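Shift notes (night). Ran TonB-dependent receptor while the centrifuge was going.
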Amino acid sequence: MRARLFVSVCAGALFAIPAGAAAQARDDAAPQSDERDEGAAVSGDIIVTATRREERIRDVPISITAFTQEALTEKGIVGYEGIGRETPGVVLNRPTQNFNNFTARGIATNGYNANLQSSVAIYIDELPVSTIGNTTVVDPNLFDVERVEFLRGPQGTLFGSGSLSGAMRILTKSPDLNDFDASVLVDFGLTGSDSFRQRYNAMVNVPLVDDRLAIRAVGFYRDEDGYLDNVGTGVHNSNSLIDYGGRLVLKWQPTDRLSIKLLGSYEYSNPRDSSLTNPALGREKRVSDEPDRFTGKQMIANATVEYEFDFAKLTSSSTYSDFDQRFYVDLAGTFAPGSFPGAPIAFGLDADAYDKVFVQESRLASTLDGPFQFVVGGFYLHRRRDVDYFYRSSIPFLQARGLTGLPDKYFQKQFTHQISQELAGFGELTYRFSDRFWLTAGMRYGRISAQGFTEAGGYLASAFGFTYYDYALLGIPVNFNTFTPYAAVEGVKAKGSKPSWKASATFKPNDNLTTYATFATGFRAPIVNAFAGRPSLVDPNDIIIPFGASSDDLKSYEVGAKGSWLGGRVTINTAFYLIDWSNIQAQANRVSDSVQFATNIGAARSKGFEFEIGVIPATGWAVGVNGAYNDSKITRLSPEEAAISGAVLGHRLSAPRIQGAAYVAYSFDLASDVQATIAANAQHIGSFNSSFPNTPGRPNVPLVTFGKTDDYTNVNLSFGLKKGDLSAQLYVENLFDDHSITYIHPEAFLVSRFGTMRPRTVGIRVGYGI
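Came back to this:
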């Protein structure tokens, strides 16, 4: 079987050139007719729906990076990690699989966001899937998507309260009503000497009734060996991954005006252990008494109806999601060796969560060519999240310490649930004074509520008035003979009602250049702390958990320009921004027992710029460079806020000051029907703070877990060939086997708290119909 190697940048750096530019370079290398539009493939002509209507990306007054399916495939992007590395001004904080938080434009107090709503909203089609920072979120498979859009800056008017600093949209492909189609992509990679990675993807599109009815099916399976050894469990390559699922989409278009799309998807992602390391144990080592597990199982059902009126398109989208997740983590790091006679002790949390979410959005977007254009709609979300908190010891530890009487390894069980709702109306109005100048104004107003409940049942084990912590830490054997049940408690309902605003002016001095100025606001929903009012069982003098955190407030000012010249061979996108962020929602951690809670603190300011430059200098060549500069720091802070959060006036927030990338690709004809491409790119991410520097509740006491990530540069190479529908790619990821620290977990309970890139990986991708 003949091997045909096709280029891939494969999980590379920030997408320094426009999506499709490498394909443009390949097209330039092949004979073309005189009528070919040489700018057709460049980013300025990608059609996006960031404003809820179809527009060219270079006409949208938003700083936006878009990835077509072709760009994703060329670069080997299969999930969030690739998107994070490809988007200027954005950092993905990724402790491990299914545990991702994006930071955009420096709007982050740490990389974890425990107990906080994410500052970047993530959508799969019409479903918001981003939640709070210490929640498992399935890392979705990105095979056979229409495109991925990453919008930087607050997007509250169209995408709600979670889009404080940006929004990422994963838009899946709809069935083709006329043509049968199929594609397959297989990826084999080897990390180190014995860590084998397998990825399988397939799609088939079948028209059932020409022009009226079609079905599209996608399936995927990933089996990836880990590359870390857990010295606590004794498992080699412990952080392996099994991930599988698929989606089925049916589209019915009974008339030219009406279309109905039904979508069902399922994904199960099961990492066998965390990817966080402990450098003190040696390279690629971690430790925990049991595997840390962050698994997710998500089912999505969606019905979307579109109707074309003479003046506008009506879209109604109804989505139901059922998401089960596992958050199992070893908390033994809470008690440092030597701090108590019996420390360290067996101590962990096994939390199972069950989300049931319903989302309804209806909107009307104008389609007329007149000076007025509008989008108006309504949004409703209802989420119930049940969380079972099981605090554990271990059977061997209990036996060794003479601790008896427990029915199993759990000394504390608590059952809770939370109900949150959002109801909002939104709209944007554009008036075009001419083809060169237009104004846009938008507003979203909604009511948000959240209420937590402790359910009857569960228990706290004790003996003679003392708990597991007391006997375990002091090394005293005992028989636990008292099991105090938890009574049902209804928490106070937190409510928020706040508008989001947007205003922009766009000016096109000529057909090749678009300039804009935008003002936008954003906020996050109020937070209810699950254990509000609870004292510490370890140290009664420690902080009493506060009620929660009210909504924060953000104001953003941005100016930008997007240009395309020489038939699309040169593109330049740039944006400058200033952001004022006040009443900041911040996460803190009680020292004595590692209970997390949310609170509010003063204010911060973030300012910076981003740029993307793409050049096709000659036939077959594609060159790109991009970069971002950010300066974000605390600007206002009271002594009380500093004490409870650990923040310091003037402290830089958790984002790199400088990041950037360079890319080069060369495509040529190896034979009359075989195209070859060689590509390389390099991504640089600057160092940034892991958290606030001081200890919550202990003013001016340095936080022992505070640190800074490393400056690092990631380099990738690829070589490939393509003939017709057949393709293959040889690639090297992390060419120099960089082992820099890319993430630091801010909480002490984890003994293994450091994230690194996957070590050097070589592989091949083989595709058909890609």
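The helical segments are 21-29, 69-74, 80-86, 156-159, 395-401, 468-474, 639-645. The mean pLDDT is 88.
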